[in-house]
Design brief:
With 163 residues, the protein is α+β, with helices and mostly antiparallel strands. The chain contains four helices and seven strands; from the N terminus they run E-H-H-E-E-E-E-H-E-E-H.
């Protein structure tokens, strides 16, 4: 399959290390979920499934989970322009989110210990609306996240229509 191309000019892709981290996280999630769903009944109920089959099923689930996590991050793009922030995700369903400057309330940067180690950050754009109205863009390079936050903040300060 050819590499995914940005939807059009001006769109930027998340860094490769973000996709690698997403692959590890999704692989671990698949290991816990499928391993628990198969392992516990296999041990407790003594299901007639050979041990190698349980290991093979869990291994396939881990590989599939890691692949989906990696691909999900690699198929995410963002763009900042004069109108606001755009986020596009394209794995199985396409999602195109546009946050106009007039809807931005405030901006946050989140960095957990794993993100700090990988020089990544999560930008949270809180928007006008209900208390759960926020657009989250995780896996950004830390410098890009700070630049986005500062640029959006400056644009927000200059926009007379902003709330």
């Amino acid at each position: 399959m050819p590499p995914a191309l940005p939807p059009d000019a001006g769109w930027q892709r998340l860094p490769l290390r973000a996709a690698s981290m997403a692959a590890v996280g999704s692989g671990i999630t698949a290991l816990v979920m499928v391993g628990g769903a198969l392992g516990v009944p296999w041990v407790m109920l003594r299901l007639p499934l050979p041990g190698w089959a349980v290991i093979a099923i869990v291994a396939v689930a881990v590989v599939l989970g890691a692949g989906l996590g990696f691909r999900r991050q690699r198929r995410t793009w963002w763009r900042l322009d004069a109108q606001g922030l755009g986020v596009r995700r394209d794995l199985m369903w396409q999602l195109d989110t546009r946050v106009p400057l007039s809807r931005v309330q405030h901006l946050d940067l989140r960095r957990g210990p794993i993100e700090r180690a990988a020089q990544l950050a999560t930008l949270v754009v809180h928007t006008a609306g209900s208390r759960f109205s926020a657009v989250t863009l995780s896996g950004l390079d830390h410098a890009d996240a700070e630049r986005l936050r500062d640029t959006l903040g400056r644009q927000l300060d200059q926009d007379d229509d902003a709330l």
